[in-house]
Amino acid sequence: MPGITLGDTVPNLEVETTHGKIKLHDYFKNGWTIIFSHPADFTPVCTTELGKMAAFQPEFEKRGAKLLAFSCDNVQSHNKWIKDIEAYTPGCKVTYPIVADPKREILKQLNMVDPDAKDSSGNELPNRALHIVGSDNKIKLSLVYPATTGRNMDEVLRALDALQKVSKYKVATPVNWKPDDPVVISPAVTNEEAKEMFPQGFETKKLPSGLEYLRFTHV
């Protein structure tokens, strides 16, 4: 897949947005940032998504995360479209910036275009990419959907919770993990180390292999 991916540093681009010009690394400082693209303004799935992002914004902010949207339309189009977004999702206000990238130069660098989807002029269309970026400007998680598939904001929030949990402890989150569920201890941590690191205790699952690698704890 072309473009940046997990672990890569997002380039410090200067972008034009509905909030004026922004340097990406300045925006990423002191927390987490969710950057996400949408194929086009005034389209049905995108209108539902950006409204839901606005509705979830208070939850993201509780976790120290900011939002930054990307599109190939211009700022004037974005500002007009915001009225439709807010009308469709009553009670929400789109207070996060939306980047304008008519030439698709930024979207390509951020791995946010679908090489197999073209507009009437033959230009690559943006996909529904979402990257969660840390304060170190590196991509911690990446989700990519085609234009026809809307994202699930509950999953975005859950993924952010998981990233923040594992950034504090030597653990990983198992399948279908949710906040307050047990986590698994990293195989790199010995049982002796685990006893010191997790004084609340941990449970080791008995498996046919006899190996003690599946250890659950609460943090």
From TrEMBL:
GO terms for cellular component: cytosol; mitochondrion. It comes from the Eukaryota. The keyword Cell membrane does not apply. GO terms for molecular function: thioredoxin-dependent peroxiredoxin activity. Keywords: Antioxidant, Oxidoreductase, Peroxidase, Redox-active center. The keyword Oxidoreductase applies. It is an enzyme of class 1 (oxidoreductase). InterPro entries: AhpC/TSA, Peroxiredoxin_AhpC-typ, Peroxiredoxin_C, PRX_1cys, Thioredoxin-like_sf, Thioredoxin_domain. Its EC number is 1.11.1.24. GO terms for biological process: cell redox homeostasis. It catalyses: a hydroperoxide + [thioredoxin]-dithiol = an alcohol + [thioredoxin]-disulfide + H2O. SUPFAM superfamilies: Thioredoxin-like. The active site is at C46 (cysteine sulfenic acid (-soh) intermediate). Residues 4-165 form the Thioredoxin domain. Belongs to the peroxiredoxin family. Prx6 subfamily. Thiol-specific peroxidase that catalyzes the reduction of hydrogen peroxide and organic hydroperoxides to water and alcohols, respectively. Seems to contribute to the inhibition of germination during stress. This is Peroxiredoxin.
